[in-house]
């Protein structure tokens, strides 16, 4: 019997290479700090349980970076997101769950719920507010091409993926908001119970020393 596997999809945390849309709103350094913090938090949450094997699925190929917790790594390989998801999940024929690293609200309970759902369902998805998904899990009873013909990075991503599972048993987890833009970050920070560790924003920019200096110069004009 195969042991359950959790894959954390991650990009090498390098300045200018991660969260580029977010960086346009808060600056490249603040976006990198956010990404590093979220990747570390997700890795710690995943590794703490001990109920599943955790692998860091990394891109770009051959990237050297300060990965969190020194988790065992596997390359995502080349191709679009669908090709990389297909390649890495095929390497784990048992129950496998894939999560990203830009969902501040993800918890160990979410991951447990995903594996629990795969006891009955052929696949499980964690829907995102923007029409994508923050988690996908597959059982051994998966279609041959689960990620074919998906319009990635659009509001159609989840619907397109579900079209590959017609006639299969599907489970859905709670809907969460991923962080792609400064607006996403501001919405999470303004929530009734904001998550710890989010960068503070001021007029769409980080409130670090550089941001405060600019604000002072504007007020002095």
Q: Can you walk through the features of this model?
A:
With 221 residues, the protein is α/β, with parallel strands linked by helices. It has one domain (5-220): Spore Coat Polysaccharide Biosynthesis Protein SpsA, Chain A. Helix content is 34%, strand content 18%. It has helices at residues 20-26, 28-49, 81-90, 108-117, 157-162, 182-189, 209-220; strands spanning 5-11, 53-59, 73-75, 96-99, 123-127, 133-138, 170-172, 201-202, 205-206. The strands form two sheets. It has a seven-stranded mixed beta sheet, sandwiched between helices. Helix 1 (20-26) crosses helix 2. The radius of gyration is 18 Å and the shape is globular. It starts with a strand and ends with a helix.
What ranges have pLDDT less than 50 throughout 5 or more consecutive residues? 201-221
Structural class: alpha/beta
- Beta strands, count: 9
Beta-strand percentage range:
15-25%
The Rg value, from CA coordinates, equals 18 Å
The average pLDDT value, as a whole number, equals: 87
Helix tally equals: 7
From the 3D coordinates, which CATH architecture would you assign? Alpha-Beta Complex
- In angstroms, what separates the terminal alpha carbons? 69 Å
How many domain units?
1
Shape: globular
CATH class category: Alpha Beta
Quaternary state of the chains:
single chain
CATH superfamily: Spore Coat Polysaccharide Biosynthesis Protein SpsA, Chain A
How many strands, which pairing sense, and closed or not: the largest β-sheet? 7 strands, mixed
Write the element-wise H/E pattern from the N-terminal end onward: EHHEEHEHEEHEHEEH
Going across the major beta sheet, what is the strand order? 3-2-1-4-6-5-7
Helical content, roughly?
25-40%
At CATH level 3, the topology is Spore Coat Polysaccharide Biosynthesis Protein SpsA, Chain A
